[in-house]
Design goal:
By secondary structure, the chain is an alpha+beta fold. The chain has helices at about 5-15, 50-60, 70-75, 80-95, 170-180, 235-240, 245-250, 265-275; strands at about 25-30, 35-40, 110, 115, 125, 130-140, 140-145, 160, 185-195, 200-210, 225-230, 280. The strands form 3 sheets. Strands 6, 7, 8, 9, 10, 11 and 12 form a 7-stranded mixed sheet that branches. Strands 3-4-5 form a 3-stranded antiparallel sheet, with no helix packed on it. The chain has a two-stranded antiparallel sheet with strand order 1-2. The longest helix is centred in the N-terminal third of the chain and has 19 residues, at about 80-95.
C-alpha cells in the first residue's frame, strides 16, 4: 500500500476527508531525498466534543499523544524542532492568507505550499517573516534580564522587540533598550539568528549590547515588562548549570530560571557567561 493510500485510510478512520491532503505543505526532505510534508487536521476548529474524540482515537491508533506545540519544541532535537516550527508557521500563513488583498478573491496554494496565487489577477503571495531583535544587555560585569507577564512563572530572558519599518537592526536595538529600560547603548554586536513561530512567524536576530559606563540605572517600562534586573555572571552561570529548572524553581531552590536550550535567548546568555571578553563594534 502506498503512503498516500495509508494516509487516506487513516483519515477516513478518523472521520477526516482525504481531500485535506491537498492542503499539505512541503517542510523539508530526508537524507534519502524523501519529501516531508506537514498537514493541519483542523482539530482546533472542530467542536470540543468531536475534537476530543478524534484526538483520543488518533492517540490510540498512532500510539502517541498530543501536547502543546511550545512544549514539543523544547522536547525534540534541534532538527525535528526546526521542522515542526516550519510546519506550524507555514500552515498558519496559508490559513490566514486564503484571499487576495487586491481582488478579495480566493487564492490557490501551489503543490509545495511555497506560495499562493490569485487566479483573477495572477498576484503571487509568498510567506513572510517579521524581524525581531533579541538583545542581551551587559554593563561589563552584569547582564540585564527581564520578564514579561506572558512568560512562564519565574522565567527571565533577554530584551526583544519587533523592527519598525525603515529601521536598521542597530536602530531597533537602541530604541527597544531605551523604551523598555531607559538605557543608552554604547556598543553592540551580532551573535546569531533563529526562526521562531510564536506569536507569528518571526526571525529572531540575536545581539549583545553594552551600555554607557556609569549609566546603568533602570527605568522599567511597566507597560512592556513585568520586571527587569541586573544579574552577576556567577548568578547566571549557576542557573545555567541547573538541570531541572522548573521543579527547583517551584521548591524555591533558585530565584529564577532561563529559557530552554533550544531558544536563542538561552544561547545568548550562555555565550555571555562563557565569553566575557568578546570584541563588540560601535553601535
Amino acid at each position: 500500500m502506498s503512503l498516500r493510500h495509508e494516509l487516506e485510510r487513516l483519515l477516513g478512520k478518523f472521520g477526516q476527508d482525504s481531500q485535506i491532503l491537498e492542503d499539505s505543505v512541503l517542510i523539508g526532505c530526508s537524507e534519502q531525498q524523501e519529501a516531508w510534508f506537514a498537514l493541519d487536521l483542523g482539530l482546533n476548529s472542530s467542536s470540543s466534543i468531536n475534537a476530543s474524540l478524534q484526538k483520543a482515537e488518533m492517540e490510540t491508533a498512532l500510539q502517541g499523544s498530543f501536547i502543546k506545540l511550545t512544549k514539543a519544541l523544547f522536547e525534540l532535537n534541534v532538527k525535528d524542532a526546526s521542522l515542526l516550527s516550519t510546519a506550524q508557521a507555514l500552515l498558519r500563513w496559508h490559513d490566514t492568507h486564503q484571499f487576495c488583498s487586491r481582488s478579495g478573491q480566493p487564492t490557490k496554494k501551489n503543490v509545495s505550499g511555497s506560495k499562493r496565487v490569485c487566479p483573477s489577477n495572477n498576484i503571487i503571495y509568498y510567506p513572510q517573516v517579521a524581524p525581531v531583535v533579541i538583545t542581551l544587555v551587559s554593563d561589563g560585569t552584569r547582564c540585564l534580564l527581564v520578564r514579561q507577564s506572558s512568560f512562564p512563572k519565574g522565567m527571565y530572558s533577554a530584551l526583544a522587540g519587533f523592527c519598525d519599518i525603515g529601521e536598521s537592526l542597530e536602530e531597533t536595538v537602541r530604541r527597544e533598550i531605551a523604551e523598555e529600560v531607559g538605557l543608552e547603548v554604547d556598543r553592540l554586536h551580532y551573535s546569531a539568528s533563529q526562526h521562531w513561530p510564536f506569536p507569528n512567524s518571526t526571525l529572531m536576530i540575536a545581539c549583545h549590547a553594552t551600555v554607557k559606563p556609569g549609566q546603568t540605572e533602570l527605568q522599567v517600562n511597566l507597560k512592556e515588562l513585568e520586571a527587569a534586573a541586573w544579574f552577576s555572571r556567577d548568578e547566571v552561570a549557576t542557573v545555567l548549570r541547573r538541570n531541572n529548572l522548573s521543579n527547583q524553581q517551584q521548591s524555591g531552590a533558585i530565584p529564577f530560571w532561563l529559557p530552554p536550550k533550544l531558544a536563542i535567548a538561552h544561547q545568548l546568555i550562555k555565550e555571555w557567561v562563557e565569553k566575557p571578553t568578546c570584541s563588540p563594534l560601535p553601535a
